[in-house]
Amino acid sequence: MKFTEFKLGEQLLEAISYMGFEEATLIQEKVIPVILGNKDLIACAQTGTGKTGAFVLPILDKLIGKKGTHIDTLIIVPTRELAIQIEQQIQGFSYFIPTESVAVYGGGDGNDYESQKDALINGTDVIIATPGKLLSHLKMGNVNFENLKHLILDEADKMLDMGFIDDIQTIISYLPKKHQTLMFSATMPHSIRQLAKKVLHDPVEISLAMSTPADGVDQKAYLVFDEQKIKVIKHLLAERKHYDSILIFTSTKSKISDIVRMLNRNGFPATGISSDLDQARREEVLRDFRSRTIRILVATDVMSRGIDVKEINLVINYDVPHDAEDYVHRVGRTARVNAKGEAITLVTHKEMYRLRKIEHLIKASIPKPQLPSGIGPVPEWKEGEIKSDSRKKIYRGNRFKR
After folding, report:
1. pLDDT tens across 254-303, in order?
2. 103 beta partners
3. Measured by CB atoms within 10 angstroms of the end CB, which terminus of the chain is less buried, N or C?
4. Residue 77 pLDDT greater than 90, yes or no
């Protein structure tokens, strides 16, 4: 479906064309008419499907011709990286529209705080905020939401995982009772449905490819011993010299510097990013990664939803994520919006139960090819089965043996 079929404003269509987009993704095709129709919405779609554009475009269309400087739309997100990413997309799509947006998050300097405070008190069209920082402004009386018309909760499942449920409900208590609420989530656990019941009014529900990686992701898992991981990564990188964008995930930020050091020592220049870096440095690293100045980036799960980089060739899971849903978010960094990509997970004996949980979640067995003999002896994997009947899929398990 072409964007012209949505009957969006000419200025917005011009910006969409200028950015090189012609056809909407499936989530955009489903969601945009609902938002333009002023219905509440709960949408479940995996990362990399164009979800941000699905809510940014109709909101910007509504803002065409807006009078006054009041806050029209509040977008709540789990991380500052995602807040910055969404603000950048808004700036791109609103190139020909006199729309202003401000990202509100912690970790900045005094100037950032004052500009955030000014936008919240005196008004700006769109506020993109992390829950904790916004709540601190609310408690200090720095916010005027009197004329707010739209509330968007993005990555709602992650916000609940990070313990923001009470903050979100408190923030909502400051909003006008009448407003349109849109909730987006990559997964749909019971906790999300419970929150939806509390904050949405007669919502339209849209679910696409729940909890599964995009079709364009070539997934593999290699069974290794812990001390072999760097050796395996060296082999993978040496075979993929033509890849110019590689993302390596680890579950703990304490491992990042070790991985970066070992890669650099072996002739593979890499850079790490985590919450330990100040905001300015994180933004610099992400800019360099987007521009391909940095080829290999090592990050944590917290960063997995804030990295919006087109055409990442390869995602490597240095270790298996603790939560199966985080696997979907990690590998969702590649093969975004109909592109192709590769996702490789390194699995040790003690991590096999996590891989079983992932396969159960995505309802598929991840291929487990053999590594070259030069890597040395590796664990052996006896593949189990995922059997299905007409009602549900049942995971039968895998067995490990030396």
Report:
1. 899 999 999 999 999 999 988 778 878 888 888 899 899 999 999 987 66
2. 128
3. C
4. yes
Domains 3-208 and 217-401 share a fold: yes
pLDDT for 209? 58
Do 298 and 287 touch, CB atoms closer than 8 A? no
**Could you tell me which residues come within 8 angstroms of residue 146 by beta carbon, excluding any fewer than 6 positions away?**
70, 176
- Strand pairing of 380-382 and 399-401? antiparallel
- Per residue in 157-185, pLDDT (tens digit) is 889 888 899 999 999 999 999 999 999 98
Q: Where are the domains of the chain?
A: 3-208, 217-401
Say if domain 3-208 classifies as CATH 3.60.21.10. no
Rg (CA), the chain: 22
The confidence score (pLDDT) of residue 127 equals 97
Three-state secondary structure string covering the chain: CEHHHHCCCHHHHHHHHHCCCCECCHHHHHHHHHHHCCCCEEEEECCCCCHHHHHHHHHHHHHCCCCCCCCCEEEECCCHHHHHHHHHHHHHHCCCCCCCEEEECCCCCHHHHHHHHHHHHHCCCEEEECHHHHHHHHHCCCCCCCCCCEEEECCHHHHHHCCCHHHHHHHHHCCCCCCEEEEEECCCCHHHHHHHHHHCCCCEEEEECCCCCCCCEEEEEEECCHHHHHHHHHHHHHHCCCCCCEEEEECCHHHHHHHHHHHHHCCCCEEECCCCCCHHHHHHHHHHHHCCCCCEEEEEHHHCCCCCCCCCCEEEECCCCCCHHHHHHHHCCCCCCCCCEEEEEEECHHHHHHHHHHHHHHCCCCCCCCCCHHHCCCCEEECCCEEECCCCEEECCCEEEC
Pairwise CA distance, residues 154 & 87, whole Å: 13
pTM of structure: 0.67
Architecture of the 217-401 domain? 3-Layer(aba) Sandwich (3.40)
Pairing relation of β-strands 217-223 and 341-347? parallel
d(CA 387, CA 390) in angstroms, rounded, equals 10
